[in-house]
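Blackboard transcription, Thursday session:
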Amino acid sequence: MSEKEQIDTQPDVQVQVKNLVKHFVQRTGFLRRKPRIVRAVDGVSFDIRRRGTLGLVGESGCGKTTIGRCLLRLVEPTSGEVYFEGTNVLGLSGSRLRRLRRDMQIVFQNPYSSLDPRMSVLGIVGEPLQTHTSLSHGQIRDRVVELLERVGMSGDHIYRYPHEFSGGQLQRIAVARALALNPKFLVLDEPTAALDVSVQAQVIAQLMQLQRELELTYLFISHNLTLVHYLSDTIAVTYLGKIIEYAGADEVFDNPLHPYTQALMSATPSLDRELRQQRVMLSGGVPDPANPPPGCVFHPRCPRASDSCSHEEPQLVDVGNGHLVTCHL
Amino acid sequence: MDQPLVEIRDLRLQFRTYAGIVHALNGIDLEIYERDMLGLVGETGCGKSMTGLAILRLVPRGGEIVSGSIRFRGEDLLTQPESYMQQIRGARIAMIFQDPSASLNPLFTIGQQLETVMRRHQQADKREMRDRALELSKVVELPDPARILDTYPHELSGGMKQRASIAIALSCGADLLIADEPTTDLDVTVQAQILDLLRRLRETQGVAILMITHDLAVVAETCRRVAVLYAGQVVESGPVDEVLYEAKHPYTRALLQASPRRSSRGQPLLAIPGTVPSGLQPLEGCAFGPRCPHAMETCAQPPPRVSVTPAHAVYCFLYDGSEER
Amino acid sequence: MTVQREETPGQPRSAWSARFLEYGLMWRALRRDRLALISLVIIMIFIAGAIFAPWLAPYPDQGMGKANLGEKLDPPSSAHPLGTDDLGRDLLSRILLGSRPSLSIGLFVVGLAMLIGTPLGAIAGYFGGWIDQAIMRITDIFLSFPALLLAITISAALGASFFNAMLSISLTWWPWYTRLARAQTVSLKEQTFVEASRALGVPGFTIIRRHIIPNVLTPALVQATMDIGSAILMGAALSFVGLGVQLPKPDWGNMLNVARLYFNDGPWFAIFPGLAILLIAMCFNLLGDGVRDLLDPQSRRTG
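(Written on the board underneath:)
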């Protein structure tokens, strides 16, 4: 891990990730003797611009959720570097780390389990304020009301409990909580996956409005390619812990280069008739992250795999226009 | 069109709960034809899963079908004794669910589970059943069919488990397969495989499919016909091309506008104000009325069924009479 | 584009009315459970009897020990509704006054056990590692002794008195709560809302205090309600062997100890205190069952 505390960074880049790796070790086997290494994140690098949105998309086992948690150090990375506005996130500890938490926050996927069922809304949204500030009860209450109104909910709800609300409302409360300390960067981990389409629309609209008003930077994680495209400026496509394609949102959609991205796009059902294409059908499912294929991780399922694909791991290639691909082709 | 395979008329279903009586289904009208692919689409609580369960009379405890009819090949299933239903389930009408792990017994191999179903409904000897099991595995495109028959569910991936449940469902030559969110828990690439399989099974096995889902895009790409449900009522039904691309009902339109797609980028996703009714109040008039931007006074009455085209029906006062507003 | 506001039907709430409504719902649910309700009523009667014993007892001084040798072992009559004991003392008064130590042992013991055991278990479960190991091994040591035997041993070592009896029973009881709390904590730890608090930078002990303990309290409370009955039984057992309240002060256990000698001549002397113990223990058990069903979200859903 890097020893540097600060690095110079381009002015408009807020988050920088270099070679992030997270391996989970599971002990299996009869007497728990055989360790199994799950390569959840296997060398991931990207930048996020200030006030922009990076969409992280992939299927199960691709590591996108883990990446989000690593950035916030909810999970400690095995190796790699993460910089927030030049500061080395992974080198912080104690009170410095706690201070960082004010700037980087997260909204989780399941609103029903990310809010303590025994706490009132006031308690839930007020918790960050209680932890980091020395505001009085009255001041905290006022701020909570202000936050709720910002996410489009009435301040009358502060004494209610989570079970009295619908999924969409709960997610708004979760957003209010994340915004309590005026963060600059939000990780949105599948925030609408548990919600109906019409409610999803409300929450997404809310998030976009907040981004404009509060000048937030988003990392939007989802398995839904269409939704990611709608929200993001740039998209990173992940597969088995690696980023296999990275480009502007429209560029990825109009010009997918990696065979997996192409397959993902053709597999995603779409309401746009013009978009329907001949299916690129993949065989089998996503392999076990503990046992990734050698060489290019995608080669067993790749319709265009060649001989070298099973031996050499492809490197990230810049094909111009800010478009990066990891493929031999 | 010829006689429907399944005809549901004015189906009403209620639940007794802690908080009162929930009106889950409020007069459902549906037709499913032979080799049809009907999508039943709606959001949480609209009653789509309940409708599927009602067809098989597998409504959970506390639920009661209070009126209506479900005709299968002309026979009203609601008037038949339980013994008749037991012959139907699995043999003539089968069902697969969102979580295949829930319908596969972890203690038995796939082959054993196939045989259990076959033994229940057909007289066949061991050898015939084994052959049929092998054939079924190939039909659902399970890799290495012979070996798969001897594996246990926990050794299979999500996609394979779902294929196995499809095989079990079709083992006795069902006429109708009810698929309740069969791909919701699967990865997108696997979903594409399964949906493709279901589409082809329609042709090769001659089975009609009732696809219950919340995903409009899935319906758009897979189904031939669609029925949109809201709060226990059908609000619009007809061929997919007509309903989804020339939507008439305000709810259908709102749902389509709220669904993101490639062309949505840069435009706001319109949300639907208000919330879905809880079902605790009995329904009078159009369920969507309170949230509808075009609501009128007459919407307090049950909306009429209007045929926009012979196959495309809308339940809305906006299209009453011959004028479209 | 502005976003619509969410509207939830109902008036704005104050902190008090919100809590009130929560309990109101629980109360309504409890009313449905007849058995639990009857048990609750009976328990209330016993508690009231214990509190107001000096005023309710027809012969308070006899209750406290004054002998009345003229009326030794009289059967139940209008003067003595439950009869008299071996020293002629009114049994009703004895039982009423004896309910004080008997009931209070149950309540104090369980309260103390919960107070010590629950936080210990939460700490063990949340931090894991050597803290967990250390705490759980100590817990295991205590659990490896049969509870009654352990209580008797400690009590005998400390000397026979009411206070020592209470202390010794508490020492046998806290490990159960630690185990319970630890198991609950381990599963709670994985809940997203705990992760969310960590993401907010909330320190570990605060998370335990704010999030883990309140969520662990529910099963602990259910266990506690049922345990009170058992604690009362154990208290009676200790008094029975002479390690609790000492004669002439009344206690259901020590009364039984004497009563068994006179069973042939005056069975009521043994029956009534015994019945009291049986009744109170059973009622607490039934109440605990009711409370558990009540707080179990599954059973709340179906009508």
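Lecturer's comment: The first helix of chain C runs from residue 15 to 32.
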